What does this fold into?
Amino acid sequence: MLESKEFTAYSQGQVIDEGLRNFMLKIYNYMAGGLAVTALAAYLVANNVSLLRLFFNESGYTALGWLLLFAPLIMVFAFGWVLQRGTLQQVQAMFWGYSTLMGVSLAPIFLVYTGASVARVFLITAATFGALSLYGYTTKKDLSGWGSFLMMGVFGLIIASIVNIFMKSSGLDYALSYLTVFIFAGLVVYDTQNMKSLYYANGMGGDVASRGAIAGALSLYIDFINMFLSLLRLLGDRR
It folds into this structure.
């Protein structure tokens, strides 16, 4: 009888682990898809002069360009509302729309940095991200206390970055790049563990799991993009 109970407990554990594995794979697949859409959108806009002129000119951003710059940030806040009240198709549309808008807003990096350095920094970011996410997935240490501290750091970065758009201080930009790498590296670890915790707490399945996977993918996507852009500013070769 005891052996039967032990076998049942073991089987349930295997089912949960398999469910978690599938959930995390879905998150990473969505994230990879989002990055692919972003890269494609950025490349297409960067190689189309007519599209570029809609958003950027010799003096910087056009009015439409400024709107585009802040549109992804607005969409992040709107995403939470759609996640709670919208259909799964609407949640997916928000994710792919966000990835596309981000790609358009990142088009100038192909004009500022060499293609080789963009590719090199992307691979560095991917390797770093993979190691950090693996640590977040496997560590037994409770990282829940990191959340509020890291989010305070993110809001501080946003405010400082907006101020620096007008100050145009190269020293502050350099310092913010280092801080962004460290803060979002911490968020990769925290967000990965948090997704595991949410899965176990909610026993996600079906539509709930799909929504959770998209939300998780968006979090990791944002972490990756911010790390990539900061490392590009630090390590990229300008044309």
Notes: Confidence is low (pLDDT under 50) at residues 1-15. The beta strands are 56-57, 60-61.
